[in-house]
Amino acid sequence: MVNKLNAQISLENFSSNLYLQMSAWAEIKGLDGSAAFLRKQAKEELDHMHRLFKYVYETGALPAIGETKAPPTEFKSISDLFQQVLDHEKLVTGKINKLMDSALKENDHSSVDFLQWYVSEQHEEEHTIQQVLDKIRIIGESGSGVYFIDRAIGEMLRKH
Ligand SMILES: [Fe+2]
Ligand SMILES: [Fe+2]
Q1: What residue segments make up the domains of the chain, in order of their start?
Q2: Neighbours of 87 (CB within 10 A)
Q3: Average pLDDT of the residues in 16-24
Q4: Where is the Ferritin-like diiron domain positioned along the sequence (predicted)?
Q5: Mean pLDDT, residues 134-155
């Protein structure tokens, strides 16, 4: 269980780096709303990592931060970027579900309780990113569309 939790620590760390790197792409393109949104996501992923880190040492085991690969730096478009965010969140959800499966199988009630928060969080995040992709699809990326998409994403940030 500890090894699996440690692998999740590294994955959350990668998620944070991925979203921070994505925010730089948005920043360079003048997409302030998206950049701010992604920076906030990056901070939240760091929280997810720290929460796991703390849980592991509280159980008396040693948390270990593994290697993280470098995130991509280039994206084709704003829709390409947020589609990659959704794909990544779905991957993370799969990993959380697998962790939960292991905790249940091992009758590790403490981990089941701990992981429940991540199950809810993944549901929330997938929903939020799906909302972003819906807005992109409705507004469309042609002409000044990207400007309005970015503004809508900035407004979502204020509501969250
Ligand atoms: Fe996360
Ligand atoms: Fe996430």
Answers
A1: 2-159
A2: 11
A3: 98
A4: 1-140
A5: 96
